[in-house]
Amino acid sequence: MINNGVQGDHALTRAGEDYLEAIYRLSTEGGSADGSVRSVDVAEQLGVSKASVNKALSMLKETDMVAQNRYGRVTLTEKGRRYAAVVWRAHRALRTFLESDLGVEPEVADQEACLMEHVLSEDTMERLISYLERQGIDVPS
């Protein structure tokens, strides 16, 4: 969906981006020291079954977005980390805009940002981020 500047990639499906984003969030917000996460934690974060996570992980491994060790822990590849960082930044920018400029309640803003992040072009996202920065709001990379 997002053409995130990772050259030669075909965009992932919305679901693929959601799984990648969940792995990214878990790995940066308290994953293990090596950045790996448990698939059960991904399932819990997304509210899906472990079987659904395993199916998604197979697709993400085929596209070289994630790696999984023999104990089942999942890490993002460099390619996956770059892709996920773009999706997560878009999510945060949209959530911030919805909350600060439109007065949307935080929980609703988070849910709607998750929907919107998959359909807006990279150009539109960059324009939104530039707008927020002109308002004095930092959207970290």
Instruction: Tell me the radius of gyration.
Output: 15 Å
How many domains, in number, for the residues?
A: 2
Strand content: under 5%
What spatial order of strands do you see in the largest sheet?
1-2
Give start-end ranges of low-pLDDT stretches: 3-9
Distance between the termini: 19 Å
Total strands: the figure is: 2
Characterise the protein shown here.
- Pfam families: Fe_dep_repr_C, Fe_dep_repress.
- One of its GO terms (cellular component) is cytoplasm.
- Helix 1 crosses helix 3, helix 1 packs across helix 4 and helix 2 packs across helix 3.
- Strand 1 and strand 2 form a beta hairpin.
- The protein has 6 helices and 2 strands.
- The radius of gyration is 15 Å and the shape is elongated.
- It starts with 13 loop residues before the first helix and ends in a 7-residue tail after the last helix.
- It has 2 domains: 67 residues, Winged helix-like DNA-binding domain superfamily/Winged helix DNA-binding domain (Arc Repressor Mutant, subunit A, Orthogonal Bundle), CATH 1.10.10.10; 52 residues, Diphtheria Toxin Repressor, domain 2 (Orthogonal Bundle).
Give the gist of this structure:
With 141 residues, the chain is mainly alpha-helical. The protein is built from six helices and two strands. It folds into two domains: 14-80, Winged helix-like DNA-binding domain superfamily/Winged helix DNA-binding domain (Arc Repressor Mutant, subunit A); 83-134, Diphtheria Toxin Repressor, domain 2.
